[in-house]
Amino acid sequence: MSHADATSSDATSPAAHDEHDGARASKPLEICFAVVALAFSAGYLVLATQIPLRREAAAGQIDARFWPMVIAVTAVVIALVLLALALTRPASGREDLDRIQPGGVLRVALTLVITGAFIAVWSLGTVILFGYRIEVFPVAAAVLMAALMLLYGHRRWVSLIIYSLSVTAFVYVVFGMLLRIPL
User: Fold this and answer.
1) In 10 A of CB 172, how many CB atoms?
2) Which residues contact 147 (CB under 8 A, 6 or more apart)?
3) What DSSP element (H or E) covers 142?
4) N or C end: fewer C-beta atoms under 10 angstroms in the chain?
5) Residues of the chain with pLDDT under 50
6) What's the gap between Cα 46 and its chain centre?
7) Phi and psi of 133, rounded to 5°?
8) What pLDDT score was predicted for residue 13?
9) Residue 180, phi-psi category: left (phi > 0), alpha (psi -120 to 50), beta (remainder)
10) Angle at the Cα of 154 (from 152 to 155), degrees rounded to 5?
11) For residues 42 and 168, what is the distance between their CA atoms, to the nearest angstrom?
12) Could you report the per-residue pLDDT of 105-129, keeping only the tens digit for each?
């Protein structure tokens, strides 16, 4: 048996084959994803219709609901297309995707917990601490960014702080100060 025969038999062994295979095709997973996407986008559409307006826009003008409604309707349409494709076609191959890595499910769960905590803290709006009124959003957003970056493996403290503060400042200045959207 030559060296080429030995390496080709090793490459086709089940252990070597499983190591480099992508994720398996799964029709139930595609249907589940499409249903979840439809539920989230429908919820977003409901929330977009409830955005309070200071005053109604005149004919031909755009109000505060316009872009959220465009995004929501587009998301619902895309989710419906995904659901129709998932129900009518065979499952797509996912050879280009890696299998679930150890700790991946835990990271997703922790991401949801961190995001839920951010939303809960953000809903406070402002707090009075030591006689000073403090906006919660900038502090909560910076902590959210730093926590997510740490969770997904970023370990350089200087860039962690700079990135978290700069993204938070950008969002706060653009949306809170320039566009005057209450954060």
Assistant:
1) 17
2) 114
3) helix 136-151
4) N
5) 1-17
6) 19
7) -85, 120
8) 46
9) left
10) 135
11) 28
12) 899 999 999 999 999 998 888 888 8
How far is it, in rounded angstroms, from Cα 86 to Cα 171? 36
152 in Cβ contact with 107 (< 8 Å): yes
CA pair distance 78, 87, nearest whole angstrom: 14
Three-class SS of 31-90: HHHHHHHHHHHHHHHHHHHCCCCCCCCCCCCCCCCHHHHHHHHHHHHHHHHHHHHHHHCC
Beta carbons within 8 Å of 96's beta carbon, 6+ residues apart: 22
In 10 A of CB 71, how many CB atoms? 14
pLDDT of residue 182: 75
**Residues 6+ positions from 152 with CB-CB distance below 8 Å:** 107
